[in-house]
Amino acid sequence: MTHRELELQLDAYVDGELVPEDARELEAHLSGCGDCARLHEARVALSAAIRKQVPAPRAPDALRDRVRATLREAAGTTRVRRSLPAVTTRWLALAASLATVAVGSWRLALSGAGEDALAGQVLASHVRSLMPGHLTDVVSSDQHTVKPWFNGKLDFSPPVYDFAGRGFPLIGGRLDYAGGRPVAALVYGRRQHVINVFLWPATGASMSGAPRVATRQGYHLLQWTTPEYTHWVVSDLGLAELCDFAQLLQQADSTVAGPGAARPLP
Amino acid sequence: MEPSELERFEAIVLPHLDAAYTLARYLTRNDHDAQDIVQDAYLRALKYFGGFRGQGSAGDGRAWLLAIVRNTAHTWRRRHRSDALTTEFDETLHSDALAEHTPAMALDRDSARESLYQALDRLGPEFREVIVLRELEGLSYKEIGDVTGVPIGTVMSRLARARRRLQETLRNREEGE
Questions:
Q1: How many CB pairs under 8 A join A and B?
Q2: Closest residue on chain B to A88 (Cα)
Q3: Which residues of chain B are in CATH 1.10.1740 domains?
Q4: What angle do CA A190, A219, A63 make, to 5 degrees?
Q5: Across A35-39, A87-91, A180-184, B122-126, least confident range
Q6: Which residues in B lie closer than 8 A to residue A7 (C-beta atoms)?
């Protein structure tokens, strides 16, 4: 092997990309040639120096959030905008089935007169909370500040999470009134949108599965009941993103409580 | 798109966000363009995700995403910088050098570190990208070939040439000090 041949193969050898017989031939040459051995050492050192010293900048957090939001928006848009040329028949079918589910749940949500009235109260509370100065009694993005704030104000301790990492930062909490009792209202954000989560201890049977959905006055209402709590989620956020948020809440609840867990202590 | 499909996409492709940003950063040499390109690339990736999953043994998605980032950067440059060919190597227009905007670099300017970065920055784009893909992203020659759209032999020779240039720069600098 000549020096020139070695130089051509040296990088592939250092990178572990040389076939075994070529590698053996190269190693044999290195062991008997000081110049080439030094060349090899320099290459190994260069590679190590680049990895160690040249920065591989991490994506800024703002970009991370932006990409997540864009993806969710794009995935949601595909569901709704049926005229998009890129929409395949599979997606069309999906969009149709989702529409059916949404309408079905909406009917379901309006089936009980009591529940209908409750939806009205929750929506009114949400709208009132958007008026200046009404949104929060305690302002904090720290769930360990918001949760204890409810101590002594309610006969239960509501689960509070921060989903800032998923693009739904905690904004704060407040006391509210719905269904004839004081309830916890937790406020989360999504870009400029406000999400109110109303919850109180469940009295009826729990309803597992996807939240029930209703739309009124341009607001979406999601409702579900765990063994511990009745949840109402209200926002003007797009339905797809709001469902994502509901799913995050449900996952967090099931992680904390575990299936069939006892009701948390007040 | 089904929510579960988006979740799968996020689980497979989102972990490579840092890798995507690093590559975009070295291709564009500025933060703002790099961010726009990465966002655009993720949208494209979402659109083509079905095709990626269809490939089966397509690895962990890193090389696949980086290929999209690279294509996006090239499309983007054609669209936003019609004069790219004449300005691409104009240092005065690319004063937003990475070294100036990476806190670690600003704080720790030992000469060896800065000189290696500068040497890399001075390489032509086709040489700079193979170094980034190999040394910073850890791609195999085949993956680099897939990302850059050239045969493995070309990857090998570009990498060898790029390293020779880096080593010369380093040696000159050490001798000059």
A1: 115
A2: B1
A3: 1-91
A4: 15
A5: A87-91
A6: 160
Contacts of A40 in chain B (CB under 8 A): none
Kindly report whether the global pTM for this prediction surpasses the value 0.95: no
Asked if the B1-91 domain carries CATH number 2.30.29, the reply is no
Which amino acid belongs to residue B105?
Answer: M
Q: What is the pLDDT of residues A111-125, one digit of tens each?
A: 456 777 888 889 888
Structure ipTM: 0.79
Per CATH, domain A111-257 is 3.30.200.100: yes
Chain B residues whose beta carbon lies within 8 Å of the beta carbon of residue A74? 43, 46
How far is B167 from chain A, CA to nearest CA, in Å? 7
Question: Residue B136 and residue A57: Cβ atoms within 8 Å?
Answer: no
Judge contact between B129 and B26, C-beta under 8 A.
yes
Which tens digits make up the pLDDT trace of B136-162?
988 999 999 999 999 999 999 999 999
Residue B110 CB burial class (10 angstroms; 0-12, 13-18, ≥19):
exposed
* Angle made by CA atoms B123, B127, B133, in degrees to the nearest 5: 120
Average of per-residue pLDDT across A213-238: 86
